[in-house]
Amino acid sequence: MSTLGILASGRGSNCTAILRAQKEGRLRGRVALVLSDRPQAPVLDRAREFGVPARYLDPGRPGARLTPEAEDAYAAALGDAGVEWVALAGFMRIVGKRLLAAYSGRILNIHPSLLPAFPGLAAQKQALDYGVKVAGCTVHFVNEGVDTGPIVLQAAVPVLDGDTVEALEARILEREHVLYVDALNLVFSGRYRTDGRRVVPEPSEETS
Fold first, then answer.
1. Residue percentage of the chain with pLDDT more than 70
2. pLDDT tens for residues 131-150?
3. Under 8 Å CB-to-CB from 127, ≥6 apart: which residues?
4. Which tens digit of pLDDT belongs to each residue from 5-36?
């Protein structure tokens, strides 16, 4: 069974969805640790409610990036917990070279758009401002760019006439909770290959 660590900064909606999937037997892995860069992040309490160790770890500085020393500390904490895979779940930091090196090809993120459209912050507002008819969410591997890693899974969500940012956010978030678990189960299975920026599922022995 694969072992997962989750990094999150806020309320932990996607983290909670993953933990619930584990409790209900829908996750083909085990969450071993939840870390946050914010000491009062609600996600820490959510994780503890599920019996998962959770703690704040100093990011080393304000802003979008961890210090190199903080990256080493995060990698060490994950390693000490036996973590094999890392899921970013609303982690408001850019993962740098040291953490990427420690978990090369094993860090995933979920983004509230159909990448490569609308990367970065406020993706739902970007979609509404642009006038698209379809939005969605993407689970991707993390690399040194911002939302540029190989795409694991995507799900489309309609943009309705009269949508507000809040309404679209809620509709996308509902799909995120399902998509992230599906993507984690895929990578845990090992039945995939990466072709450029595309992750291609491979058939199981039962279906091949």
1. 98
2. 999 999 999 999 998 899 99
3. 113, 117, 118, 135, 159, 168
4. 999 999 999 999 999 999 999 999 999 999 99
Q: Are residues 84 and 115 in the same domain?
A: no
DSSP 56-108: E---SSSSSB--HHHHHHHHHHHHHTT--EEEESS--SB--HHHHHHTTT-EE
142 found inside a domain: yes
What's the whole-model pTM score? 0.94
- Cβ pair 44, 59 in contact under 8 A: no
Residues ≥6 apart with Cβ < 8 Å to 118: 126, 127, 130
Residue 160 in this model has a pLDDT that exceeds 50: yes
Among 104, 119, 136, give the residue marking a domain's end: 104
Q: Which domain holds residue 158?
A: 110-201
Total domains present in the chain: 2
Beta carbons of 181 and 20 less than 8 angstroms apart: no
Same domain flag for 99 and 3: yes
Q: Examine the domain organization and report whether 143 and 63 are in the same domain.
A: no
Evaluate whether residue 34 is within a structural domain: yes
Known catalytic residues are 111
Predicted local distance difference test score (pLDDT) of residue 206: 54
